[in-house]
Each structure stands twice: as structure tokens, then as C-alpha cells.
């Protein structure tokens, strides 16, 4: 979840004092990177996925499932291979926020030929296998977006107790031991975010109201004034950053293509969030939301009361509308400029400095906007930097702006180009599903570039979509703002006239309509072509080998079915499992037993021991394999 | 029946240009190639009649119907070495002449390039395969490889035994075999193994071997005509998975009864 710097973390008081220093030098460092690398061109497509996993410990005798706090131990072994053979290792493993989480990526990025789509799922499978080999009896590595009983009593193995009055987290529910202990960054972030905010983070998720659901949900509201009685209250960073995601990074051929991909994928973030919804249960309760997004957003919301608009501004400079984990606030390509319709805050001196150094308005405001956030994690060894060579201060702020999309400049002195990260998706239970989503999104980027499609809608409408995307059963029931005519240059003459002027209000152009996920992905005869038909059309013009095409067809069929509602989202499947469980009392409570049975079932589905057409469809197998056939190795 | 005013008394060539820049076609995605080709011809005819020009009489004496388009611009936008240009030829009858005419039209009139990466041939389906006819066409294709105009050769929709025979016989071995997308999940293991052993690329397509059926021709032109040949060209940017250009050329002539 960001830059892991070795060293000694500073106290909050010291960190706070150095915030202006980090901002000043961070901006300088970006300027230096930009000057060196703005002309970089000709990079090929390389891309990779990131999957986070939870280590679960089953106790079959007691019918219990806990999170196992062994990530540090397991990572030590997983990282040995990388240390020995950094160039040939098949998977890279990294720590994540929680002591029960690990993050895996392919050892090398995938390349720009279509045959790479056929090795993704096998890589995911073998990656999981590599971690599985290090497990103890009863343990499992599961790609779960949220652990359903996170923060319930005794949810960890070994058992731990939360310490509301001492330690770093000070949560009613989340013990310090569940934070990854192997690197000081994580606990440091917990502490600094809480201290900067001036109080505990507070997340109130509306509870799913079943016939016997008790309101108030529990006694949290008696202890904490931030807790709402009819909500599931969460008070620790771990509830959010202890969730797992599926992320993707692509290399663009130059900075302008990176801007285009950043912008064009932005309107797809809420759609893919709704599509991948997988986290309806938090702290042992069924909630009325299907996604992790707002939970994480709230879990790292370091804004002070002034910044949240609760008190007049005195110490702080801005009232800031969003958490540092949230959807992006502005587009970066010239085409996107007219859709930037929400206020973009920044310090004028940062913006001016960026502009004075030759950076255009759109990129300057983006970078300056990132720097409205103070550093919340600083290491003593990294304070004084050479802005021409080092990038830690820039990365410090960049990597703690956790947004739907991330625009990533090339690391200095590397062969890596300008990149874009796609971050909204929830992780799915099986590798088949994760591979399908990953390939779908990468194919979509190729279709966007090939046909020069235009998905842009006003940012305010993307934000509205982000909120709707998280509602219960949004994938099937919600309608989202989406651009009606996505073929670039031919829009009706009125729209052209309207949108050409600077005074234009793009909403008035009637270019944007409300569509379901199904209509967006599968199309709507006569009105909207649909993302999957566009992908198929693109594939018809490409050289695709038979096995890869078979695999892609299986993925696309799965996506088609899930978008159409023919099969469940992970979230809907989990809801149905809980509400139909014989031990469920219609009170929204996910008991130890239900949690155990749910996770066992998901594990069986993942391992293929149990077929689950209602989640995966009837043909959830592909022709994925470990490597690309020789005949295609030198292909284009 | 857009073309009542277009009298087809002699051979006519069509070039659709880059159909990826025709938004009406992009908006009707994932149709099969026949539907796509029909739309592309109709669009080309519409532009042609709108701009009403007679200058298409070529030096070779036949009429070329085309539209203003961006194929050559798209090609020039990139370094030649970064592009992969591929051609698929759909032949309705044997003999060398249609193949040569098709390739010359594509290379010189439409693409204006000296060479392409590969040519895949699709012969209007005879059952069983007519190996002699295939060999005759193949010889002509080999000649282009010999002259470095074409890099690699391939063939579509061929029976496995015919393909093996062709492979054994050919001087320039096929590097590509194209099978229908509908069968991509059920490729015979023997064919898989053969391709693996010989490093042959087993690609998919979604084309009918009868790319423009008589019925469609009659619907478009309002009179029965013969399709002599058709070609599809595609231009990709290597290693980026970006398709920049795609289009068709074809040749029709009055029915020879």
C-alpha cells in the first residue's frame, strides 16, 4: 500500500513540523522527474496485476475461522526466492497493512501481445500455490475483499484483545497485533492519521435491516459519540486498510497516452467497483453496502475538524471534501479539461512553481492538489534529500493519495515508462474471476486506444456514480451516468457547438445518460454498443492464437453474465449464503458458525472442490497455461 | 440499392479505406466480417456518390471506387518498424491472377507500402479441399516471399490432412493456420501438436470463407455480380496491442454466364 522506506519513523509532532518541508521538496522532486522524463517515448505495453490475500485459520472442530497473524513469518520465506534470484523469480510478495495479509504480483510484467492474456490465470494460481505451501494445517490463503468477522471478539489466531486506552490503534475492536508488525510504516500511519485528525477515524455503515435486526446495532454509540446507533461503527484504520483489493498497472507509450488512459478509465472506476462488489459484511454484520471503498476512505481520513468543515478554519488552510483515499478530482488530458467540474484545491505557490517550470495547467493542478495532504509517515533517514536525484518526498505524498486512479511517473534511472494504475476493483474469490477482470480491463484499454473512444463525463457525475456503486446490489439495480456516444469526433452538431465553447456546461449537452452495468458492458441494441461487443470487434482485427482466444472468450462470457445479473456478484452471493444459512436469525448478524461455513464454501469454490454456477457460470474454466508457445514468442 | 447510377459493365475495384474511422461501423460492434464488409461497401458507395467523381478510372483501365480516408496518414504516424501490417485474401476461384491483382491493389493502391508481415489466404470453401488449387495459389504467394514483399504465409479453414500435405510440399512453409473462432476451444489435439512441433501459429478468425455471398452483392448493387476477390488489411502497433487501421479492398465484375 505504498512506499516502504527502511528506517526510523518520526513522532507525529516531528512529522507535523516537517510537513511543509516534505511538500516543498516533494514538488521540486516531481519537477525534476518531469523535466528529465517528459519526452520519454516509445515504451511498449507492459502491465501487471496485484492481488492481496488474507491468511485464514480454520478450526474444523470448533467450526471457527479466524485471521492468522502469520504474514510476517510467511513473507520472510516468500521473499527469500526474490533475494536469491531477483531477475527470474516468478512472483513478488509484499507486506500489506494487516498482520494477516500478503500481497502478490507477477515477477515480471506481462507484455503487449495478446498471448499474455493466457498466462495470467496460471500465474495467479501458482502464486497462490506458492503461499499455500507455507501454511500450517487448517490455514488457507484466501482472496477475500473483507474478512466478515474482522473486529469481532477473538477474530485473530493467536487470540488478541483490542486495547481502547493504549497502544497505537486504541480501537474498541481492532487490536494492535493485527497490524503488520514487520515494518514501522503501518503502525506509524495508524497513529499519525488519528493524531492528525484529532480523534479516532469513524466509519458508520448502514446496517442491512432484516426483520429481526436490532437497532441500535450494538453499544458503540454509548461509548463513542461518533458512532451512529443504526450503523455498524468501525473505529480503526485496520477495518479499511485490512481489506483486500485487485489492482492493475499499465505502462503507456508516452506521457500523453498515460494521461488519456488515466482519464478514460476514470468513468469506468465506479462501474468496475459495482461489478466487482465483494464485501457486504463488516464486523460480523450484514450491511447495506456491497463494497469496501467508503470503509477504506473513512479508515484513513486524516482531515481535521476544520478541514471537514465542522469548525471555522484557523490552523488549516482548506475545507477538503474528500478523504485522501477517494475518487480522483480532475482529468489530466486536454480532452478531459472541460469535464473538470468540481473545485480543485491546491496551494497557489505549489501550482505556480510547477507552472513556472514548464508544467501545463492540468498536470500542475493535479500534482499541486496531491500536495494538499500532509505527510503522515516520515523517516528520520529520509528528511534531507537531493531533489535532483531522490524522489522520496514526492512518493511519500503520491503513495498516500489512495485514489481510484494513479498517475505514475517513471522511476528515475530505470527502464520503466509513464504508468497508470487502476485501483477500484474488489478482489474476487477465484483466480478465474480475477484473471477475467484483469484481462477485461487491459483489453478495454487497447480498445480505447485503437478506436480512440471517449468515455468522459463530468467528474461530479463520476463521484455520484462512486457512491451509487457501493449500494446493495448496485451491479443489478443501480443506474449510472455514462456517456451515450463514445465515438470520439462525431457527436451531434449541437453537442459539438455546445461543448466547443468554454462556457459550456457538459451536462447540458445531453451526452450523458443513465445506464445499468448491464447496458454499459453488454450494450443496448441501437443505443449503446457495449464494452464487450467493442472488445470482440477489436479482437476480430487482431491476431489471436486459438488457446488465448478460447480463454478470453470464457472470461468475456463470465463478465457478460455477471453484468447481466444472470450470475451473482460476490457480494450478492455472500448475502444469499448468509440469509439462507439455517443458523441465521434474520438479525443481520453473521455468527462464528455462519462465518466458518461461508469461508469454507468460498474455499471449496476457489479450490474447485465445489462447482458454483450461480457465482461463476457454467464454463468457468479456461485454457490458461504457464508460458507462451514458442511460435508466438517473437510475435507482435 | 444505392447504386442505380453506378453502371457496372466492367470490372470494378473497391477500397473502403480505414473503417476504424467510420463511427457508424464502430457503433455496431462485434458483427461478423461479412456484415462489417457490407456496411463498409455501403458507406464507401455513399461517400463516392456524394462526392461524385470520375477520376477513379485507373491506368489499368478499371474503375476504382474509394473514399477519402486516413490509412496512409495512420501508417505514416508511426515508424515503419513499429508497425505490423497483415493481409488476408479471400479468393473465390483458383488461378494466380486474382491473388496477384488483390495483393497489388492492396499494397500499391490502398496501403502504399513495399512489404507486409504476412498474407493469409482463404479459399471459398470446397469440400473436400482441392489441394491442387491450393498449391497453385501457394506458388504465387511464395513468389512474393521470395521477392521480400511478404514476410510469412498462412492459410485459413483448411482440413488438417490437407494442411499437412501443403506443409510437406511447400517451399515456403505456412507459418500460420487460421481456424474459425467458434472452434477455438476444440482444436483437434493432433493439429495442436503439429503446430507446436513446427512452430506454426494457430490463429482464430471470425470470417465466413464466403466473405460476400451472392445474395449480399445483389442486395448492395441491385443486380447479380461476381466477387472476384476480397482482401482485408490490418495495421497494428507492435507490442502495444493497438489496432490502428483496418479495411477491405474487393473486386467485382459482371456475371460471366
UniProtKB/TrEMBL annotation, chain A:
Entry EC number(s): 6.3.2.2
Gene Ontology annotations for the cellular component aspect, listed alphabetically: glutamate-cysteine ligase complex
GO molecular function: ATP binding; glutamate-cysteine ligase activity
Family per record: Belongs to the glutamate--cysteine ligase type 3 family.
Lineage: superkingdom: Eukaryota
GO BP terms, alphabetized: glutathione biosynthetic process
Pathway participation: Sulfur metabolism; glutathione biosynthesis; glutathione from L-cysteine and L-glutamate: step 1/2
Entry protein name: Glutamate--cysteine ligase
Primary gene name: 109546724
Lineage, highest ranks first: Eukaryota, Metazoa, Ecdysozoa, Arthropoda, Hexapoda
Keywords: ATP-binding, Glutathione biosynthesis, Ligase, Nucleotide-binding
One Pfam family matching this protein: GCS
Record's catalysed reaction(s): L-cysteine + L-glutamate + ATP = gamma-L-glutamyl-L-cysteine + ADP + phosphate + H(+)
Record-linked InterPro entries: GCS, Gln_synth/guanido_kin_cat_dom
Top-level enzyme category: ligase
UniProtKB/TrEMBL annotation, chain B:
UniProt keyword annotations, A-Z: Glutathione biosynthesis
InterPro entries named among the record's database cross-references: Gclm (IPR032963), NAD(P)_OxRdtase_dom_sf (IPR036812)
One GO CC annotation: glutamate-cysteine ligase complex
SUPFAM superfamilies on file: NAD(P)-linked oxidoreductase (SSF51430)
GO-annotated biological processes: glutathione biosynthetic process
Listed GO MF terms: enzyme regulator activity; glutamate-cysteine ligase catalytic subunit binding
Pathway: Sulfur metabolism; glutathione biosynthesis; glutathione from L-cysteine and L-glutamate: step 1/2
Family assignment from sequence similarity: Belongs to the aldo/keto reductase family. Glutamate--cysteine ligase light chain subfamily.
Subunit structure: Heterodimer of a catalytic heavy chain and a regulatory light chain.
Protein name as it appears in the record: GCS light chain
Species in which this protein is naturally found: Dendroctonus ponderosae (Mountain pine beetle)
Gene name linked to the record: 109545653
Amino acid at each position: 500500500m505504498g512506499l516502504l522506506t527502511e528506517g526510523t519513523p518520526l513522532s507525529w509532532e516531528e512529522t507535523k513540523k516537517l510537513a511543509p518541508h516534505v511538500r516543498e521538496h516533494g514538488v521540486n522532486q516531481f519537477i525534476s522527474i518531469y523535466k528529465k522524463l517528459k519526452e520519454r517515448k516509445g515504451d511498449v505495453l507492459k502491465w501487471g496485476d496485484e492481488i492481496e490475500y488474507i491468511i485464514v485459520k480454520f478450526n474444523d472442530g470448533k467450526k471457527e475461522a479466524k485471521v492468522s497473524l502469520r504474514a510476517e513469518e510467511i513473507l520472510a520465506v516468500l521473499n527469500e526466492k526474490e533475494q536469491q534470484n531477483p531477475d527470474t523469480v516468478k512472483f513478488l510478495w509484499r507486506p500489506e497493512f494487516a498482520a494477516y495479509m500478503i500481497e502478490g504480483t507477477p515477477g515480471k510484467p506481462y507484455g503487449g501481445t495478446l498471448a499474455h492474456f493466457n498466462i495470467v490465470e496460471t500465474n495467479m494460481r501458482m502464486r497462490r500455490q506458492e503461499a499455500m505451501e507455507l501454511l500450517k494445517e487448517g490455514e488457507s490463503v484466501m482472496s477475500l475483499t473483507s474478512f466478515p468477522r474482522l473486529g469481532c471478539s477473538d477474530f485473530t489466531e493467536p487470540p488478541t484483545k483490542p486495547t481502547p486506552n493504549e497502544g497505537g490503534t486504541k480501537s474498541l475492536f481492532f487490536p494492535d497485533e493485527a497490524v503488520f508488525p514487520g515494518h514501522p510504516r503501518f503502525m506509524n500511519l495508524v497513529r499519525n492519521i488519528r493524531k492528525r485528525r484529532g480523534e479516532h477515524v469513524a466509519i458508520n455503515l448502514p446496517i442491512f435491516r432484516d426483520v429481526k435486526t436490532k437497532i441500535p446495532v450494538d453499544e458503540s454509540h454509548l461509548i463513542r459519540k461518533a458512532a451512529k446507533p443504526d450503523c455498524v461503527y468501525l473505529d480503526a484504520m485496520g477495518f479499511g486498510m485490512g481489506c483486500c483489493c485487485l489492482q492493475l498497472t499499465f505502462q503507456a507509450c508516452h506521457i500523453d497516452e498515460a494521461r488519456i488512459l488515466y482519464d478514460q478509465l476514470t468513468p469506468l472506476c465506479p462501474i468496475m467497483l459495482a461489478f466487482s462488489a465483494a464485501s457486504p459484511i463488516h464486523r460480523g454484520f450484514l450491511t447495506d453496502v456491497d463494497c469496501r471503498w467508503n470503509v477504506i476512505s473513512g479508515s484513513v481520513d486524516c482531515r481535521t475538524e476544520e478541514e471537514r468543515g465542522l469548525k471555522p478554519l484557523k490552523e488549516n488552510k482548506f475545507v477538503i471534501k474528500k478523504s485522501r483515499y477517494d475518487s480522483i478530482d480532475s482529468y489530466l488530458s486536454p480532452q478531459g479539461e472541460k469535464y473538470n467540474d468540481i473545485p480543485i484545491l491546491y496551494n497557489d505557490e505549489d501550482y505556480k512553481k510547477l507552472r513556472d517550470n514548464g508544467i501545463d495547467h492540468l498536470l500542475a493542478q493535479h500534482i499541486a492538489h496531491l500536495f494538499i495532504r500532509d505527510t503522515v509517515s516520515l523517516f528520520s533517514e529520509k528528511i534531507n534529500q537531493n531533489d535532483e536525484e531522490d524522489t522520496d518526498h514526492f512518493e511519500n505524498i503520491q503513495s498516500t493519495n489512495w485514489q481510484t486512479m494513479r498517475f505514475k511517473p517513471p522511476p528515475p534511472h530505470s527502464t520503466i515508462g509513464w504508468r497508470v494504475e487502476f485501483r477500484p476493483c474488489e478482489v474476487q474469490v477465484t483466480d478465474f474471476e480475477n484473471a477475467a477482470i484483469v484481462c477485461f480491463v487491459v483489453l478495454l484499454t487497447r480498445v480505447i486506444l485503437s478506436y480512440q473512444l471517449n468515455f468522459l463525463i463530468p467528474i461530479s457525475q463520476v463521484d455520484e456514480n462512486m457512491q451509487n456503486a457501493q449500494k446493495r446490489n448496485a451491479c443489478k439495480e443501480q443506474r449510472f451516468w455514462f456517456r451515450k456516444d463514445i465515438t470520439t469526433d462525431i457527436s451531434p452538431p449541437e453537442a459539438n457547438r455546445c461543448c466547443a465553447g468554454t462556457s459550456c456546461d457538459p451536462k447540458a449537452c445531453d451526452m450523458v445518460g443513465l445506464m445499468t452495468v448491464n447496458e454499459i458492458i453488454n450494450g443496448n441494441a441501437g443505443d449503446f454498443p457495449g464494452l464487450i461487443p467493442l472488445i470482440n470487434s477489436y479482437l476480430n482485427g487482431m491476431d489471436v492464437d486459438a488457446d488465448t482466444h478460447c480463454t478470453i472468450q470464457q472470461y468475456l462470457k463470465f463478465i457478460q453474465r455477471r453484468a447481466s445479473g444472470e450470475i451473482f456478484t460476490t457480494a450478492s452471493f455472500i448475502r444469499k449464503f448468509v440469509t439462507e444459512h439455517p443458523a441465521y436469525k434474520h438479525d443481520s448478524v453473521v455468527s462464528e458458525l455462519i462465518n466458518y461455513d461461508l469461508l469454507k464454501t468460498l474455499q471449496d469454490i476457489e479450490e474447485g472442490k465445489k462447482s458454483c454456477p450461480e457465482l461463476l457460470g457454467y464454463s468457468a474454466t479456461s485454457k490458461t497455461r504457464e508460458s507462451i508457445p514458442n511460435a508466438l514468442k517473437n510475435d507482435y | 440499392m444505392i447504386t442505380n447510377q453506378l453502371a457496372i459493365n466492367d470490372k470494378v475495384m473497391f477500397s473502403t479505406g480505414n473503417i476504424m474511422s467510420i463511427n457508424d461501423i464502430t457503433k455496431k460492434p462485434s458483427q461478423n466480417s461479412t456484415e462489417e464488409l457490407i456496411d463498409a461497401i455501403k458507406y464507401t458507395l455513399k461517400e463516392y456518390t456524394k462526392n461524385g467523381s470520375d477520376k477513379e478510372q485507373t491506368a489499368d483501365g478499371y474503375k476504382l471506387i474509394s473514399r477519402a480516408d486516413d490509412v496512409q496518414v495512420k501508417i505514416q504516424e508511426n515508424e515503419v518498424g513499429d508497425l505490423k501490417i497483415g493481409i488476408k485474401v479471400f479468393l473465390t476461384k483458383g488461378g494466380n491472377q486474382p491473388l496477384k491483382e488483390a495483393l497489388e491493389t492492396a499494397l500499391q493502391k490502398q496501403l502504399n507500402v513495399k512489404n507486409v508481415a504476412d498474407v493469409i489466404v482463404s479459399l471459398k470453401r470446397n469440400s473436400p479441399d482441392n489441394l491442387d488449387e491450393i498449391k497453385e495459389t501457394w506458388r504465387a504467394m511464395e513468389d512474393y516471399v521470395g521477392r521480400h514483399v511478404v514476410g510469412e504465409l498462412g492459410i485459413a479453414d483448411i482440413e488438417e490432412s490437407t494442411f499437412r500435405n501443403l506443409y510437406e510440399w511447400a517451399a515456403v512453409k505456412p507459418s500460420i493456420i487460421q481456424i474459425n473462432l467458434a472452434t477455438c476451444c476444440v482444436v483437434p489435439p493432433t493439429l495442436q501438436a503439429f503446430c507446436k512441433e513446427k512452430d506454426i501459429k494457430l490463429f482464430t478468425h471470425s470470417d465466413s470463407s464466403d466473405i460476400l455471398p451472392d445474395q449480399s452483392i445483389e442486395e448492395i448493387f441491385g443486380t447479380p455480380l461476381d466477387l472476384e476477390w476480397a482482401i482485408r488489411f490490418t495495421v497494428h502497433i507492435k507490442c502495444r496491442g493497438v489496432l490502428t487501421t483496418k479495411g477491405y479492398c474487393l473486386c467485382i465484375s459482371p456475371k460471366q454466364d
